Every structure is written in C-alpha cells, then in structure tokens.
Amino acid sequence: MDQAVATPAVETSPVVELRQYTLHPGKRDVLMTMFEKKFVKPQQELGIHLHGEFRDVDDPDKFVWLRGFRNLGERPGALEAFYGGPAWKENRNEANATMVDSDNVLLLQPADGEGFTLARKMTATMVATIYLLQSPADAAFMRYFKERVVPVVTQAGAPPVAELKTLAVKNNFPKLPIREGENAFVWFSAFDNDDQLKQVVEKLDSSPAFRAMDNDLRRQLVAAPVHLILHPTQQAIDRSREPYRYSLDVKGGLHDFDFEDGEWTSKQWRLKDRGVGSNDWEPFTGKHWARVLLGGVANVDTVEFPEKGWSGSTYRHFDKAKGQWSIYWVNSRDGRMDYPGQVGGFTGNVGLFYGNDKDGDRPVRVVYRWEKQGSSHARWEQAFSYDDGKTWETNWVMEMTKVR
Predict the structure, then answer these.
(1) pLDDT in tens, 354-397
(2) 216 and 148 in contact (C-beta within 8 Å)?
(3) pTM for this structure?
(4) Where are the domains of the chain?
C-alpha cells in the first residue's frame, strides 16, 4: 500500500546564528556524531530551527552550523532551556573537550526581511561568502548587491540562494558570546558537487566583469571576502528535502537512464552500522561500466569496489504499459538478486525508486534516489525506513563522474 504523507511546512527563521567552531585536531567527526545523536532533537523540541551542519572543506578542524529562532525574544529562553537541560548537561564535558574555540558566532537576520531557510536549496557543496562591510548592509548596499554582484556570479553559475545580514542588537543571551561591532553580509550559493564549484571559480577568475565588480566591492569592505566551502552532513541534506513518500506507483520515461551509458568512477560513503543512529561513514571508491540496451527499454551496469574486494551489478527494464522502471541488484558476495527490487522513475533530474527488503532480519522499506548532474556527474543514494515509511535513514551515497 502506498503511503500518503503531507509535506511539512518549511521552517524559516527571522533570527539566525552562523556558528564556526575550531576543534582540536581529529575531533570534528567526534563532535559531529555527538551533535547529531545528542543535540539535534532536543533543540528542535524547544522550537530551535537547525538550518544546516557542515564540514569546512578547507579546514579539517572546523565545524560550521546554522541555528535559527522564531523571534529574538524567544532566543534567550530557548537557549537557557537547552544549555540548562539534560542533553547538554550530560554531554557538555565530552563536547567541550573537542573544542578550541566556539565564540566565532555571527547573529544575523534575513537580508530580504523574510524568513531564512536552506530547505529545498541545500546541495552536496555549499559556499557561504562573508563580507565585512564598513557600514551596515542598508537598502543602498542591497541595491548594489542585486545590481552589481548578483548578475556576475549568476552568469558564472553561482546564483545566491539565501542572504543574511548582521542583526545589530545587544546579545540577549550573554552566556554565549557573539561577534559584535561588525557589519556582516552573508550569502549562500549551492553546487551539485565540488567539480561544479571548481568550474564556476575558474569562470569567475577569468571574468573581467567579476574582477571589476570585486575591485569595486572591496572598497566597501574592511577585510577581504571570506569564502567558506562547506559539505553538509547527509542528515542535514535529508532534513532540507521534502520527505520521501513511499509509493509503488512512481512513473518514469523510456530514456531515464540513457545518461548512464559509458564508464564512470565514483566516491562512495556507506554507514558502518545501519538503523542504529550511527554517523560513522566508511569511504571507498568504485569503477563503473554501463550500457543502454534495446533502444532504452533495458540497461545494465557493473561496479567494482577495489578497496572492498567485491563487486555488483544492476539490471533495469522499463515497462512501457506501466510507464515504470524495475531495478534489480546482485552482488558478488552471495549472488542473490534483490527480487522484487525497486520500482519508479524520474521527474526532471531526480529519480525515486521504492521497494521492500530486509536488513538482516528487519523488514525495511527502501528508496533509491538518483540525481542527474549535467552530462558528466550523477549522485545516487540509498535510504531505509524501519518504521513503515515514517522516517528514513540514508545509509549509502555515491557521487559519480563520467570517464567516457
């Protein structure tokens, strides 16, 4: 039976903290695992909005996250309840032991006066660009940003997806310091993958229009722009999306998988322990070969995992009458096909394929999520639901790059 799930309203915040923590070497994953298991739900239960948790790509010892509030007046009460509550008290010593500095915090508000969110906007690679201005980001600066900056970065492939500016008020929860006396403007851009970001940076570096704009912009700044290249956690990505709606009636098109024909390499991440709330991912690589057959009605691919010592193959066929794909996976370890597999199809660049299986002795609902990312990249994810589709845990992620 299909599951009808109402799409929840997107949580927006008029008050936002951008928090950058410097950690002791090798402690980032320790803190981020603790954060996900111990601190996410207690904050959400207090009405605090978590807009994203990120690894700083350029600094292995930095954890970046965004926290929002329904209004400024609720901020001190919500923070007092969390930091005075059991979740923090029971884990604060372990959490604080990972940190060198947790005071790099900007108190911000949406630049457009509306609520801030990255929901439905978050991708595998995000960039937060921070301008420290000589004066507040007033209406004149916002016009400048829209007329001078936005067209140039958008043409290069980096349109802003959200903007924040300093909320110039006294810190109403002084137990947690914030950076004061600064005029910050922060804008976010989203990229399917690191390669896409690299291509955009190359375009900007070679653009006379960007150089002219950047030189002009810097006259309004007190310091050079800061660009935080961020990888969101998989849980943050999952929270930012519309929830999965389990259905065996998802339709697709005959040529949905034509893009896969060829040879690929991949980066893979797989949860070491599924269904237990783990955040411990095992990285490895893959080598892929795929062929489209019968004019698109069928296709087959194989993947080898050099570090794992095993391989797998996927078989797909398109039922023209149903307008639906069926997918079957076989691995070299046991040679068993996961019949009846998954069914579904693509809408635009995103494909969803649902089915039923077992994880050991536990029955699970399964979803494969495909995302086409131009002509040379793709992303695949696998998630299980252990509670009949109410909640989902992504346990395997694959980022593919086409070789030929």
Answers:
(1) 999 999 999 999 999 999 999 999 999 999 999 999 999 999 99
(2) yes
(3) 0.93
(4) 15-240, 258-402
